Amino acid sequence: MRDEHGGLIGGRYRLVEPVGQGGMGRVWRGRDERLERQVAVKEVLLPPGLDAAERELMLQRMMREARAAAGLNHPGIVTVHDVVEHEGAPVIVMELVPGQSLAAVLRQEGRLPAARVAEIGAAVLDALAVAHAARVVHRDLKPDNILMAGPRVVLTDFGIASVADATTALTGTGTVLGTPAYMAPEQLEGRGVTAAADLWSLGATLYAAVEGRPPFSGDTLTALYVAILTQDPAPARYAGPLADVLTALLVKDPADRASLAQATRALADCAAPDGPGRAPSPKAADRAPSPKAAGQDRAPKAAGRNRTAPATVLDSPSNPQPATAAATAPAPPDTPAQPAPRALGRRTLLLAGLGAVAAAAVPTAYYLTRPRTDPHGRTPAAAPPTSHTATVNRVAFSPDGKSLASASDDRTIRLWDTTTARTTAVLTTYTGTGTEALSLEPAGYVTSAAFSPDGKTLASSNDTDVVQLWDTDTNRTRIPLIGHKDAVESVAFSPDGKILVTCSEDLTARLWDVAAGRTTAVLSAPTGYVLAAAFSPDGKTLAICSRSRIVRLWDVATARITATLTGHTDEVQSVAFTPDGKTLVTASLDRTVVLWDVATGRNTATLTGHTEGILSVVVRPDGKTLATAGYDQTVRLWDIATTRSTATFTGHTGGVMSVAFSPDGKTLASGSRDHTVRLWDVATGRGQIAGQPEVRATGTPSPPTAG
């Protein structure tokens, strides 16, 4: 293929012009004559000095690995269309991705801002999650193999990837495949290469992107090897909040290296506008309201219902209230240490901005935790013992409406009396892995909580593979549910309470027989982390969204897909059925809410109005109203019949992660990254901030568009 302009490969791929060459191959722009489309054609160059037997073994191995790569399906992985042999060498036919490599971008722009590098890293990790789940290891991850195609970040060159369970070593001849500056120590030493090697390479790549140079260097190849194997990386000067992530990825022992899930969470927090160590940009700071300004008008009035803004602050320093029921697990100290900031796998925080706060008056809100006074997201110096001290990921009402559960990154679940808005119990979740018993070490982050329909059980998930069930009468844990292989993102009970669905970063959702504590079905979602699920009112259908733009409907009895809903242009974060089961509602980071006819799978309406990605949607028990919330720090109400926004609730100073209606529909709860939980009086919008005179605000949201 060296000079084959116009040549035909595999009987259908016409070579047009060479577009690049590296140590392992040459890439051509080509044309698929059969399908009449442009493609990239890569000729894999075998190492020199191989005898006939070694060459044949290498050829067979690379063909097998290329075919394994062809089975990967993810927008962040270049699509492999075909693998053919030409003149004794493997040729890989791929999609032609327009854009530059990260290496080219670095050559043109120099080092990149830490937030942008975090976004790139998070996108690559999302792609690696799919590859590693398929037991494919890249082996040569470096800036040259990351393509920047507009907003899309694409990982390419799996042509020398190693199938994780393969027994034949590519380095049997002494030839090292890959780029030494970005290769893990175990790879340089010729030891078994696992998925952890890709994480090292990503750490080295991100280091180079943010610092403008690789983490290790040497005047000779030997000196470079010695540096990687024995020395610490050069101190990072520009990494800022990325520094800890890079350190964790560049640990020499793969057993101690950061896992993919850990790195994903850390990078997403670094990429988020209010991530660790990052002050908001001036634009973001301007639109992030302080508590004092929360009641001010924010935009011209439009169609919708006015709300008054006063709120009642409870469990603040002026109104302390200790927990009245302790969990089996020891309660956290009065001022628990802030855990490392977490960005949930189910939410692509790197895509989120603080967003302009939509114009609207604020209805009544009870602050169930002390309101934050620092718009930069720092923990208050002296938080009261009954307040959350980190992001609130999920809120859930008990079936009788008397209790509210809130799950937080501060490692706790708090139970609240909804009448007095005071804490009644603090539950601390614990870690566990595989079949091991729960340890005494608190889990890092509580991702979700849900009450059973009879109210006797509370299910919770955290950033481990363990799901805990709590007895709500005693607040004691029952036997944990163990089976997932990575962090569990959310939990939901079936209407009869017999089945629990758990959604995990291991790319599966599991159905559990609650009474028996065993898995009855495993639902696979190869498109990414499974984020959330909802049962239809009759319990026969399950809607599941994963880290992709699609939603799948599953038949619960047969565990088979019955429909695939497409139309969103970004990740779907939340799903909910209307009480009659005829409509499914989905909320996405593309800032839209879509209503679907369950019977036909047709989009019946698209609601717009949020200025940033939407994280949560819930249907009011009467089936007439929706509530949505997201990164723009607002909660919106929508009339389902008219598809118009009827009110916008403002006051949170961080993205709103979750909303929930009380069983009677009179109260709406919301949990936020500002560490607070609020109860909104939906009907009257009246209330008072404790210790302050009533303050009113006016304003209405702009009407949405229907599609």
Low-confidence stretches: 161-178, 273-385, 431-442, 687-707
Q: In which order are the strands of the major sheet placed? A: 1-2-3-4-6-5
Give the CA-CA distance, first to last residue: 51 Å
Radius of gyration from the alpha-carbon trace, in angstroms: 26 Å
Fraction of residues in helix: 10-25%
- Round the mean pLDDT to the nearest integer and report it: 75
Oligomer, anyone?
single chain
- The secondary-structure class comes to alpha+beta
Number of strands: 42
Shape by Cα distribution:
globular
The number of helical segments is 9
Which range does the strand content fall in? Answer: 25-35%
Please provide a brief summary of the model.
The chain is built from nine helices and 42 strands. The chain is an alpha+beta fold and 707 residues long.
Structural summary, described in words:
Helices cover 15% and strands 32% of the residues. It has 707 residues and is an alpha+beta fold. The strands form 10 sheets. It has a 6-stranded antiparallel sheet, covered by helices on one side. A 5-stranded mixed sheet has the order 12-14-42-41-40, with no helix packed on it. Strands 13-18-17-16-15 form a 5-stranded mixed sheet, with no helix packed on it. α3 packs antiparallel against α5, α3 runs antiparallel to α8 and α5 packs antiparallel against α7. The longest helix has 20 residues. It is globular.
Which features does this protein show?
alpha+beta, 9 helices, globular, single chain, 707 residues, six-stranded antiparallel beta sheet, five-stranded mixed beta sheet
